[in-house]
Design a protein that fits this description.
With 748 residues, the protein is mostly beta strands. It folds into six domains: 40-135, Jelly Rolls (Sandwich), CATH 2.60.120.380; 143-240, Sandwich (Immunoglobulin-like), CATH 2.60.40; 248-340, Jelly Rolls; 342-450, Jelly Rolls (Sandwich), CATH 2.60.120.380; 572-650, Immunoglobulin-like (Sandwich), CATH 2.60.40; 657-745, Sandwich (Immunoglobulin-like), CATH 2.60.40.
Length: 748
């Protein structure tokens, strides 16, 4: 009876297990789980949903690509009919916090039902999504079209992908279209990477990659779409002057869509153009306004607002250098508003400043050479800013204020309720004046403009000027004093010594003194002539830090600046060899000791060897290196503790040829060991033992460990074969040393 009871219990357990399995399968592939067709797509929105499932069934064996595009980051898995997660053959993932794209490739069997499970990321809902499942195909060709093929010459980079549609045709005739892609590259639904190249006349189609600089006026350039080393399609562009380019116009008050980098703009009044992005509270520096003068573009705004004249044609240009850091500037909406200027005439006394409107901008056109007085009545402190023609508001001193503080403050009367300035003008010139009430207290300003013959009131011609010299970070000033009353009638500012630049900051030792040229600018960005300073060089011959002293002199400048530049060894090279890593450098003639240091990946430097003798220039590091690890070497010369860091190298162990064979049909089969840290392999074969003129075959998959070679193979000949691994780290390609050479004879 006990045995029967145990048997029945085992049966019950088995039945429960079977039912559980059936229930599990039903749960995975229940009728309510939507199905996606192969070579089809579905879209949806997972807002507030943590998981979404789909099922699909391949009609034939092969490799399939699954692509997921989402608003926010999502996790995606493909599971077998048993519910286990599949390992992918290839994957690519791109995007940011706003949009993401994931592509996985799987080897699948026909008639088997697979599930795709999408789950939200850790912090955000997935939002809108699109899921695509396609059987793998090979790209055959591509057709390119651009809504703009004529660009402005010499005006920044041309991001051709932003203007382009690319239609890829695959080997079975199916097509894939990509419109306006950023960073001049894109991935298709299969994970194939396509990149844009450009070439000028006489260059190979893939001479340059990515965004191309603005070409010279009249130049022509070919844009090509490349897939690997293949040219898939091409289109020609040209460059012209901005006044002849086919540009659209922008109107004041437009909330315009910006699909381009260039626009024409005109104003009905003198005034300011204030450009803001819709949804932004501050002015944008990505949109700049230029005037086309003497066949050159001249920027006239200071990144925030611009002073424009009635009736002139200006050009609104997107700052294309910013595109290097953006995902898509095209399609942004901007708002262009006009701030009209008021004309100021002699005798006017109706200009007012009231509370919450602390600024008044006016224009003045002088009717004759001479001097104007600006006389205000207010108990509050005012500042005058103004420009003579240049419209450069970065510095208010372009306006010649001969009576009044150089920073724009007017001189006051006894009761501090009046202020006045004297400005020097030229007939016909246009002046832009800006009055600021600093306290924003709401006091009403009455401003009067009148003529003044300044020369009769003050005489500054017989006294020498008093000069306070400019120095680094501090303005200088030249003052002129009236001989009649002692009043400081005029002040001319000497902008402070500002930035400096050396011709170079690094150079290589060659036994000669190094003297990089020096350029010094004032705080306004203008070059200070070299006659105003002496340059002294110290310790500028041997390896180490050289000192540069810039000592100012003359009537306008004083003080000094000290900087340095580095003299390093002439060269250092690293390479993988069979014994380890080879370190080579150019010896320094006055050095008799070299200490070599090494670090692995992001670890610390470790001293590995000290060499003595002036002729030492090569060292083989035979330490045990890790396959796929990055190594950096530095060399300390003598005991100076001046180090020079070489280029980083990725160590790749060399492969071994396991077998060579020939089937007698003009073919060689090479089998070699797999390197898990490599990205691929390079095979060389030749009928000559010295490998001169060897043929190269690249295998771009580290899992492929056998290759059939048929090209240039002749029966009856003996061939020499060798293999090496390669890896790509931080955009640079590294090779292992070659395997030992093996031979094979092709049968008759």
């Amino acid at each position: 009876m006990g045995r029967m009871r145990n048997y029945l219990m085992l049966c019950v357990v088995a039945v429960i297990a079977m039912v559980g399995t059936l229930l599990l399968k039903v749960d995975v592939y229940a009728d309510d789980i939507p199905e996606i067709a192969v070579d089809g797509s579905v879209s949806g929105n997972m807002k507030g949903v943590s998981e979404q499932k789909y099922v699909f069934t391949p009609a034939e064996d092969g490799e399939y690509a699954v692509r997921l595009d989402t608003e926010r980051f999502a996790d995606m898995e493909v599971r077998s009919d048993a519910g286990s997660k599949l390992d992918y053959e290839y994957n690519i993932s791109t995007g940011n916090q706003d949009t993401t794209m994931q592509i996985y490739r799987f080897k699948l069997k026909k008639g088997t039902t697979y599930s795709i499970v999408i789950t939200r990321g850790e912090y955000h809902d997935v939002g809108a999504y699109k899921l695509t499942v396609k059987k793998m195909r090979k790209p055959a060709s591509a057709a390119l079209s651009m809504y703009r093929t004529v660009f402005v010459g010499g005006s920044g980079k041309v991001h051709a992908g932003e203007y382009m549609q690319a239609v890829v045709t695959y080997d079975d005739g199916l097509k894939y279209a990509q419109n306006k892609f950023c960073f001049d590259k894109f991935y298709d639904d299969y994970g194939y990477l396509y990149e844009l190249y450009y070439a000028d006349a006489g260059e190979k189609w893939n001479a340059h990659k990515g965004a191309c600089p603005g070409g010279k006026v009249g130049a022509k350039r070919t844009i090509s779409l490349g897939y690997g080393s293949r040219q898939m399609g091409k289109i020609d562009i040209s460059f012209t002057t901005i006044d002849k380019a086919p540009l659209s116009s922008v109107k004041l008050g437009d909330n315009s869509i910006i699909p381009d980098c260039y626009y024409k703009i005109k104003f009905d009044h003198d005034g300011e153009a204030i450009i803001t992005e819709i949804g932004q509270t501050s002015n944008s520096g990505e949109y700049k306004i230029y005037e086309y003068v003497n066949k050159k573009l001249k920027q006239i705004n200071d990144h925030q607002w611009s002073c424009l004249e009635k009736g002139k044609t200006y050009y609104l240009i997107t700052d294309q250098s910013w595109l290097d850091h953006a995902t898509d500037i095209f399609g942004r909406k901007i708002n262009i508003q006009e701030h009209k200027y008021q004309m100021l005439n002699v005798g006017d006394n109706s200009v007012t400043l009231v509370k919450d409107v602390p600024e008044k901008v006016m224009t003045l056109t002088a009717n004759k050479d001479g001097y104007y007085t600006l006389y205000s009545t207010t108990k509050y402190k005012l500042t005058l800013m103004g420009q003579n023609n240049s419209y450069d508001w970065d510095d208010a001193r372009n306006l010649d204020i001969v009576y009044g503080d150089g920073s724009g403050y007017g001189y006051r009367g006894k009761n501090h309720n009046t202020q006045y300035w004297v400005i020097k003008v030229k007939k016909g010139d246009k002046y832009v004046l800006s009055m600021h009430e600093e306290n924003n207290s709401g006091g009403t300003l009455t401003l009067t403009l009148s003529n003044l013959n300044w020369i009769t009131d003050h005489d500054t011609g017989n006294l020498p000027p008093q000069i306070y010299k400019s120095r680094p970070g501090e303005d200088g000033v030249i003052t002129y004093t009236c001989i009649n009353c002692g009043f400081v009638a005029k002040e001319t500012y000497i902008p402070a010594i500002g930035k400096y630049k050396l011709q170079y900051t690094k150079c290589s030792y060659d036994g000669k003194e190094k003297k990089p040229r020096v350029v010094v600018k004032n705080r306004k960005g203008k070059v200070i002539p070299a006659s105003n300073y002496d340059v002294i060089y110290k310790n500028n011959k041997y390896v180490g830090d050289a000192t540069v002293i810039i000592k100012f002199k003359g009537k306008k400048y004083t003080g000094c600046l000290v900087t340095s530049f580095f003299i390093g060894p002439s060269s250092t090279k690293l390479s993988n060899v069979s014994e380890g890593i080879k370190v080579a450098w150019s010896p320094i003639c006055d050095s008799s000791r070299y200490t070599i240091y090494r670090k692995e990946n992001d670890g610390n430097y470790v001293k590995i060897k000290t060499l003595y003798g002036v002729d030492n220039s090569v060292y083989i590091d035979r330490s045990k290196h890790k396959n796929g690890a990055r190594y950096t070497y530095k060399i300390v010369y003598k005991s100076s503790y001046i180090d020079y860091v070489s280029s980083i190298i990725c160590y790749i162990s060399r492969p071994t040829i396991k077998s060579l064979s020939s089937n007698g049909k003009n073919m060689i089969k090479v089998r070699y060991g797999r390197n898990a840290k490599a990205m691929g392999y390079e095979i060389q074969y030749c009928s000559k033992q010295n490998m001169k003129g060897a043929v190269k075959v690249v295998v771009g998959n580290n899992s492929t460990t056998a290759k059939n070679i048929t090209k240039y193979i002749a029966k009856g000949k003996t061939y020499y074969v060798r293999v090496r691994s390669y890896n790509i780290d931080a955009g640079r390609k590294y090779y292992s040393s070659w395997s030992k050479v093996k031979t094979v004879k092709v049968g008759r």
